[in-house]
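Quick note —
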Amino acid sequence: MKDNNNPQDPILTSGRHISYWTDSVTVSLPGTLNENLETDVVIVGGGLAGMSVAYCLAKTGKKVVLVEDGLIGSGETGRTTAHFVTSLDDRYYNFENIFGEEKTKLIAESHRVAIDFVEKTVKEEHIDCGFERINGYLFLHPSDKKDSLERELKAALRAGVEIKALDRVPGILKDEKCLCFLNQAQFHPLKYLDGLAKAIQEKGGKIFTGTHASKIDKEGITTAQEFTVKAKHIVVATNNPVNNFFAMQLKQYAYRTYVIGSLVKKDSVPKALWWDTGDFKSDANVPPYHYIRVHPYNEQYDLLISGGEDHPTGDTNTSGVAEEDRYSLVESWTRAYFPIEDVVYRWSGQVMEPMDGIAFIGRNALDHDNIYVVTGDSGNGMTHCSFAGLLISDLINGKENKWEELYKPSRFTLKKSRRALTQIKYDFISYFKQFPNFKGPEELSSVKNGEAKIVGMLEENFGVYRNPEGKLHIVSAQCTHVKCTLCWNSDELSWDCSCHGSRFTYEGKVINGPANRDLPTYKELENL
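Predicted structure written out below.
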């Protein structure tokens, strides 16, 4: 397993574990912004969403500037498993209950459009990223209702999805019935982004990495180095919006998800995607499911990439399973279904789960009309982020788009969403009670090598991590978003916020929004 324990290392993504994607390709480094600019559109975020928006706008002749505080794809795109699907995290029969049959057809169509768009882009721009069409197989989790697959088949057919029932799941060791979703796809996400970056720049777009947008408003952005980009339109594509205080945070929730990459003998497992329907005993509202795919690795082996065991960010209370122990659960489940050998990669990622199961794409809620966001990936980030490029490009160009109302960030489906009320209740409880695992600060001397705790000093609470060599790293224990008390993630060696999903390295560098400022360090606080 490959880890990166240096938060300042330029290949660091939003976690210390190195994903296969990050380890297997070097994405081009355009350089840091060091001048003031004016443009038609400025985009904050260099993941699949931001890059798709930039590409689509550049194709229409818009002047585009994109800024990314890390490298291209160094956030959650570099930690995905890159499934392109019409088999969605939330069942189609649930979408019918929430949106009705006609809008459910639009949802299904948007994901088909996204896959077709990426396939077309790969061909037009000659991007060598291993894009290929494959089938996907959905099978029943033991905790799910027996009629779940039949209900999903009928609802998916009504929505126009290419689907059929099979008596056995191809490629797995167990005898299970399944639904076969036809014409799904997969690719290497960072190779695709590298190809997009080149295409954007060839079309006149400008990309800047290592450039943090510390201020975002209707005029444009200001970077941490005090350079400005003035723009007619501003797009925030940072997984969880860093320009949004509460409007979006009350309508989505952050989850951590865990991935392993295991060796399987070459061609012993067919190229396909697999998913179970989710563990309803773990969480009946948002049942965590397992998701699997195969990717070429070397002459002897393929890499079976398997993920799951999700939980709310910063909160493992319900199951009592610590973050670092989740990989072994993924491995045990995978070994029961696939002939895997050594586990050679492990990493985790963050998923934003919206209240009604589909992404928020469009004009930012309660904001100026020229500010747009992309968030709420709901585990289908590849299709949602790709589709965002098409939708936001149409909005900025004043072109009518039939999906605008469906995906608009200002929507609120409280009466129809079974998750929304629970989420809002948890949100406010977390805010006023602070962090649910927090039992009070401890003494500095109690922090052992390799441990982290909340420690009380100078009438303040600090997050203290003592590395294996004994060096202390001391930061404020309050999230810079709305001051919720942070929780230590011993897997990623990060301080995570259970209120809205913000995350920070042990040196205090912000690596996940909605927080957009680093944590004050002990020395900074001491001088206040």
